[in-house]
Amino acid sequence: MEKEILLDSIITAKEALKNAPKLEGITTGIEGLDELFFIAEIKDNKPVKKPLGGIPKYSVCNLTGVNDTGKSLMAEQFAVHRSSKNEKVCFITTETPANFVVASLKERAAAMGIDENVIDENIIFIDATAHYKLRDDVYSFLDTLAYAIKEYKIQNVVIDSITGFFENKEMMARSIVRMIYNFLKKWYQTSILVSQKRSGHELLSSEAAGGYAVGHIVDGTIVLSKEIIDSSYKAKMYKKPLGEIVRLFRIDGCRMAGHDTKVRFLEITETGIVKILNPIGGEK
């Protein structure tokens, strides 16, 4: 390859600062989550935590876990909640056709006490289940998403799941995720990427299908897991009866803001609403 000096890649800090966004949080509609992000300010030579009030705006957040842990429900809650704020949300589905996802979003809105009409007005789908080229050709996908962002003035993106873009070519996972991440940052999109864990992965690690590709590239990772209470040891640790299933939540990292690091219980209500609860060991 011929060597070339790319002058456009060289930029002073002062020039970069002109386009640097203010660090602020945006609410997610997920009870118990928004309080877990903060910034630290120095007062009297001591760091003082200041709540961010949500996930960092313009962040790209990876939501990973095995099946039936609440990933898609959380992504849907985020989409419905932001649409209720009169913001445009692009919902990219790679697994479930859009006509089924919209029905689920309507259920989520009803359970959240939100007028379902906001979904009709503010959520735009890109259905990659019906258009295989979008999953197989990342350039076509990004061009399609760029068109949607410009046409509908989209501010938030949900991809359920990012795994769908490399499920039969995991060797390429890192480069595909990198391209999608850079695109979302370029367009200042606050984004939730759902990724799947393999059953052999450690439950509360950020490793997902494609290895650590997603977690290493994105701004932050939230890990969900579940355990069956099948021993007296677990029953004592989780304070739950034998035979019950407990769901767990952990923020694995967030490079844009401080965050709570405790492993917490996660609840899925009968109406399919996800809530983040107290830490396993209690609040200290």
Describe the structure.
With 284 residues, this protein is of the alpha/beta class. The protein has helices spanning 13-18, 71-84, 98-112, 117-122, 132-136, 138-152, 173-186, 213-217, 232-238, and strands at 25-26, 37-43, 46-51, 55-56, 60-65, 89-93, 123-127, 156-160, 190-196, 220-228, 245-254, 258-259, 264-268, 274-279. It has a nine-stranded mixed sheet with strand order 7-6-8-9-5-10-11-13-14, sandwiched between helices. A three-stranded antiparallel sheet has the order 3-2-12, with no helix packed on it. The chain has a two-stranded antiparallel sheet with strand order 1-4. A hairpin with a 5-residue loop joins strand 13 (264-268) and strand 14 (274-279). Helix 2 (71-84) packs across helix 3 (98-112). The radius of gyration is 20 Å and the shape is globular. 39% of the residues are buried. The mean pLDDT is 92.
